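If you are new to this repository, start here. Below is one unmodified record pulled from the training split, so you can see the exact layout before writing a loader.
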Amino acid sequence: MTISLLDARRCWHTAINPLHSAVYFSPDLGKEFAGLGITDPVAVNLAHRSAAMGAVGAGAVTATFYNYRHELVARHLPAVWQTITPEQALAARLRAVDSTLRRLLGQEAVESPELAETADLAMRATEGCTRHARTLYAAHADLPVPEEPHLRLWHATTLLREHRGDGHLAALLLAGLDPVEALVSHTATGRGMSPKWLKAIRGWEQFDLDAAAERLRARGILDADGELTDEGKAVREALEADTDRLDAAPYEHLGAAGLARLAELGGGFVMRAIGAGAFPGDLLGKP
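And here is the target side for that same chain:
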């Protein structure tokens, strides 16, 4: 191992995942899908995230996404594919990515050599990714790589995000955390989605969150106030360490110098996007 797994984790959290996920909260995404007849925000979310897998149904998406309420998924899939095709969804998403990144980063940054370098570094890292047992990564890896640097960068961050995400699901199973327990314990760290967004995006009700919290208290992971116990902190850190290990290959392929440069450049673009209002102010945090 020639890289620090902690450095790789930090790079993913601060320079990769936010660039990918900014489009989830972009008004441009809703506009593009509304033009195709899809106006429900949940339907938009499910369609654009699952489209790379084709017109699959609710069961496959619930399994692959792990922590969405199945009834919420089944309300929109496969029905959404009666209105649009997966190909239309992917094209709409890429148009939204184009307009979102131009708006958040600015035209000068989009056309800068630094952004092109960031895209090259991120794409080089994806050469170390593997397909086996990584459904969302493998589906996106089958998509064509865009030519424009800012779109190529977003594509690369998508591959790296889903590669880590697919491995994270294996780690969640190993940790014995069911979908709602995973979300509630993540929220308790202060770095996960707030309950408001767990309900709006994932479809869980307050009683689901309360029941999961009770199960976590019974296991000694949460205390009476809903905070992580020492054991709970150890469970979450072991979960992240397992995820780091399963996701090491792309960054090992990139090398320590490339990883540091990707973190530096990508982190700068992320901070610019955050400063431009890429994410809701109440997205993360404890109740």
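Two things worth knowing about this chain: The CA atoms of residues 66 and 179 lie 6 Å apart. The mean pLDDT is 97.
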